[in-house]
């Protein structure tokens, strides 16, 4: 896929857009939003009143794929910041698409006149990049085909920090199809804060996606101990296990550009259950970007290991931090912002 230049660092299209400096800044902002939310819930007014804005900003979500968390999460974050959101890419109701013939160019040029920031999810890998080239507004890639899901990776790292502390001191396992967009962004983002150990749990007979392999090579170069296993039981000594389905093509999963249908059950070595956790006497924190399928059994939900709904909760301050930063026009300063064209290793 052809990737655009990032002349201004205005967009969050890939984990490559983010530098360590940006990561520290976004964590600090998210922690402040979390603290303020907790203070408000406890009936304590924030130490500093919110900055008054001249008028609320408008966040436009342009999604041609289904979404619960990302769409509602950004809309909720916008509302909590005092902003508003509009659904701008509803193919049933808008004039975009072949039935009426309005082009993506005209659609984007219209929507950008109603909005201040665009959040794009598409089954087409190049769609957020096209929108980025077409629009002067900041653009967030909220998942593009089988490419990336960078805001999900920021949420995952923030959740790990909040629930288990400094990432550099942790051992982290990922059980997933190595082509999954959340997984690629997750491992790329780990390069900014390399864990002590990283273990990939994957199918033995399927080649590892080159983007995943490259990110793991960089991690190894940064001093992370790298392992590859083929049974989720072998990850239960880690501090963290982020789990999703293997072989997503079998499930026609959204992360590969299609809608998810869970017609086939995940195979036993890649399914996490309460029984496996209890047998291993494991205190591994289980994360999952959700929606879950048969890889994460509901028997896990009542265990202290279950971190996935807290992960959803923590996504709100992180999305607030992302919107705040981008609406202030603060550029991302990662490798992609400095380089022209192809994604670069850190
Ligand atoms: N995690 C995630 O991207 O969920 P949705 O598909 O519901 O947005």
From TrEMBL:
The answer, when asked if Transport is one of the entry's keywords, is no
Domain called Aspartate/ornithine carbamoyltransferase Asp/Orn-binding: residue spans: 169-324
Query: What's a Pfam family in this record?
Result: OTCace
Its GO biological process annotations read:
amino acid metabolic process
Alphabetic keyword roster:
Transferase
Any single GO molecular-function term of the entry would be: amino acid binding
Q: Which residues form the Aspartate/ornithine carbamoyltransferase carbamoyl-P binding domain?
A: 10-162
> Record's InterPro entries?
Asp/Orn_carbamoyltranf_P-bd (IPR006132), Asp/Orn_carbamoylTrfase (IPR006130), Asp/Orn_carbamoylTrfase_sf (IPR036901), Asp_carbamoyltransf_Asp/Orn-bd (IPR006131)
Family of the protein in this entry? Belongs to the aspartate/ornithine carbamoyltransferase superfamily.
Protein name per Swiss-Prot or TrEMBL = Aspartate transcarbamylase
